[in-house]
Specification:
The structure is a homodimer. Chain A is of the alpha+beta class and about 280 residues long. In chain A, the strands form three sheets. In chain A, strands 1-10-6-12-4-3-2 form a seven-stranded antiparallel sheet. In chain A, strands 5-11-7 form a three-stranded antiparallel sheet, with no helix packed on it. Chain A has a two-stranded antiparallel ribbon with strand order 8-9.
């Protein structure tokens, strides 16, 4: 899997690339089958919705779950990003976002790189967001919405929203969003389970609540160029990883076959990864 | 404007009919120009979002605003419903729903006739919901969502949701919604300003929040067959009207020309219309 010149141009212009049905139904089933087990755990990496019960997001499952650990090394995902950055990658963040039927809440308009820069001291926006649809995404179950071209403006001013949802977020003011949408519009890539989106760390995005009876479980992860690793460990290690070892890909069939992977947090998250540290190690 | 046999069949089967661009852009502009004035009023008929400022819904503008009073007598809206019920109509409820850019909150899955029956003692579901789009409705600004065919089940059990949004609502449980959607799916009619939806009082509907920079102002009103008038005045008169005088239509060009209309609440809402009464008059 190699990105074409046309795809590279489109990524530069729009800030995202959409790959419908990149993974098969059965590959996604292998992942989905693990999700209830993960959400049933009482691990500290799991953030719940305002109701205190429905899982909203779950960090770092690739550190303790075998199937997600294989996904984290999948060549169909890793290789295009290596191509774009021209170097090896490490996993900056890995999460499973529930957006569960009926109870999945919205995410306000935000950029990710602002947080990576301000909290994690990541030098440049050379970390790629990857969204992989474990469920079909349609107009009713809260698809990701992007403002194409908004990544060109770098880091925008943001305010800390601690009230709208259960997860605090640096969000962008209404006037700026209106101006960006006037220029670039809004798109919401929709497609079957197994679809993948690559999007720029500065691309402005949001998503609505899920009022439908269809879960919309997606994996969102961020692949950072190794040379661009974070310099500050202010956030817990399970949110912003501190291990910069380059990802070595598994074979293309890894989701359907057995491959050996390290599961360092299998027996629990190390205490030092549960909190922020004053200085990088 | 007369409904065809095919439209009558479709209404019976799906529980709604969609008329894209039934009104012109300039007719909608005449209405939209009045909305800021109405929302700026401090009348008791205006319900605000949880933020206490953004207008969520505004009742009974046709009782004090000249342009909305003309809409309330528009033949393109009234005639098809008269045809369906075979008798004259009165205005049971009239509201302008803001669903404003960024701050417009969601409406959970519900039916309207449940409330009309339980609170207002309306004998049958012979009152038609009408939605008229003053702004374009697209996938991003919180379109109405319907479960086609769900009106066939009559009044479903509902629980009183007083926490999700600023407006308390009798909402339907998740299991029932999942079952109905399994059978009928979900549709969300979208279209330009001036489009109209007629939908059955038992049709299950909801709408998402509006995270987009585009307002989605719509008029929602309910036209009740005169013989089916409500029997109980438990809710304030500005929410469930107590005047059953049959609507007399104005000419088709009424939104663009001057016609004389009564504005009985022009100088304020009568005190007895602000509260529920024990008995019907």
């Amino acid at each position: 899997m190699k990105l074409t010149d046309q795809q590279l141009e489109r990524f530069d212009r729009d800030g995202y690339l959409f790959f419908p049905s990149l993974f098969s139904e059965s590959e996604m089933q292998a992942l989905l089958a693990e999700v209830p087990k993960i959400y049933a755990e009482r691990r500290p990496e799991i953030v719940r919705e305002k109701d205190g019960a429905t899982p909203r997001t779950s960090f770092a499952a690739h550190m303790y779950n075998r199937v997600f650990a294989k996904l984290a090394r999948h060549p169909r995902m890793v290789k295009p990003v290596e191509q774009l950055y021209g170097e090896k990658l490490y996993m900056h963040q890995f999460k499973i976002n529930g957006k569960m039927a009926f109870d999945g809440d919205l995410w306000q308009w935000h950029q990710d790189y602002g947080t990576w820069k301000n909290d994690d001291a990541m030098p440049e926006a050379r970390a790629m967001n990857v969204a992989i649809f474990l469920d079909e995404v349609n107009e009713f179950n809260g698809p990701l919405m992007f403002i194409p071209g908004s990544h060109k403006l770098g880091v925008l001013e943001a305010g800390h929203d601690t009230t709208t949802t259960s997860y605090p977020l640096w969000t962008i003011d209404h006037e700026t969003i209106a101006r960006l949408v006037q220029r670039g519009g809004i798109v919401a890539p929709k497609g079957p389970a197994g679809s993948m989106i690559l999007f720029h760390g500065c691309l402005v995005h949001a998503s609505s609540a899920n009022l439908s009876p269809w879960n919309r479980v997606s994996v969102y992860l961020s692949l950072c160029a190794v040379s661009n690793h974070i310099r500050r460990f202010k956030r817990p290690g399970y949110i912003a990883h501190r291990d910069f070892t380059p990802i070595e890909c598994l074979p293309d069939d890894c989701l359907l076959k057995d491959y050996s992977v390290a599961l360092p947090w299998k027996d629990g998250t190390p205490a030092e990864e549960l909190q922020g540290l004053r200085e990088a190690a």
